[in-house]
């Protein structure tokens, strides 16, 4: 009898809970954009392709329009594919928050730059922006040449490793580790003031933790929306790796921080100076709860390192892959490099003189958006967007994949055409609907650095090498531009041939 009453009460409570959420959902439809039905508790999650969620979202956009609503587990979600509406939305203060995802709020606890919001985000973004400008990440700054030299050393390191690999000109080489090492060390100098050797055990551990973490943390991952799944063995293993990897990474960061005096010009040194300054003004008790605490430093360093490495790395991998797939474009770029630069090596000032190269890079960023679903925002206060009312706590997804492949904006969008980014005079033009670094108040802070890295690597390597696919790299009938998605979208086929153009 007791068991019977227990299950009766439990089922009654569950039914009431489901009915409440169903009624709430129905009542909110008056204010929300149209969208698909979902199941109680889990919403539309079962219908999302776990490997290509951006394609599932894009199909819904074709059915419901450029703005639609979808329930993802416990989170009401708005998906936008209209570039003008994305810009409008992400310039609103009400949409500068972060969605209440389990990984960002439950694990990262709102620390860092990517996952923070409110006063902490505003303060940390201002601090990080000042640091970057003072390190030369501005178009006119005394330290820009020093930063350029640092990046060019990384380019030189990558080319040396390609040349030293015996099979690079015959059967090809998986060059991604070379890019990871050299670009990663650019970020290490900027953030920590130090470099790592290629075979350093600590460096190998850090890159392993970063690469695997990027694969496991996907915006559409069920764990973000259904935290209770973490008890299931399949998901528990991923969670254990993410949490354990995060703690191990922070341990290494703490060791590096202890070596700092606080006088250094890297990010850690600047942070420590600001932290000490605030201690003097506010007292130790307040600092413990302030934005400039030790935990914030670790998460900020991880965010700056990850964003500074992942975006240029993914972009360059796609760009060089497209050079192998489209040899006629590669030859046009090499002709431009030879004509404009003659025998001297590229520098940042050459970017404006190489419009076709700039257009080819931009077109590769359009065709294979490295963050297809964008970085979701969260509504931090009730607001209106167009004809719709958005409630606090709603997640807003800028579906950049759909924006960049919209046939109304880009005729024959699956075609690779650098000419899209050239005007009638052959000059480079930036298209309004092109937003690989997102847009608005939380636009990517590292855009200028990423553009510097991408240009210098792309121009220098294409000046020196001809890039091809090995005959056995892409299986017959497969798309050489097929991607693998974690946080970022990466090429599935990564082995390339680098033939020296220098006699």
UniProtKB/TrEMBL annotation:
GO BP of this protein: organic acid metabolic process; xenobiotic metabolic process
GO cellular component, one term: endoplasmic reticulum membrane
Gene3D superfamilies from the UniProt entry: Cytochrome P450
GO molecular function: heme binding; iron ion binding; oxidoreductase activity, acting on paired donors, with incorporation or reduction of molecular oxygen, reduced flavin or flavoprotein as one donor, and incorporation of one atom of oxygen; steroid hydroxylase activity
Amino-acid positions noted as binding heme in the UniProt annotation, renumbered to this chain: 444
Pfam family, one: p450
Keywords per UniProt: Endoplasmic reticulum, Heme, Iron, Membrane, Metal-binding, Microsome, Monooxygenase, Oxidoreductase
Cofactor(s) of this protein: heme
Domain of life per record: Eukaryota
Main subcellular location of this protein, as a coarse class: endoplasmic reticulum
Record's bilayer topology term: Peripheral membrane protein
Protein localization: Endoplasmic reticulum membrane; Microsome membrane
Function summary: May be involved in the metabolism of insect hormones and in the breakdown of synthetic insecticides.
Family per record: Belongs to the cytochrome P450 family.
Protein's recorded name: Cytochrome P450 CYP306A1
Organism, scientific name: Sogatella furcifera
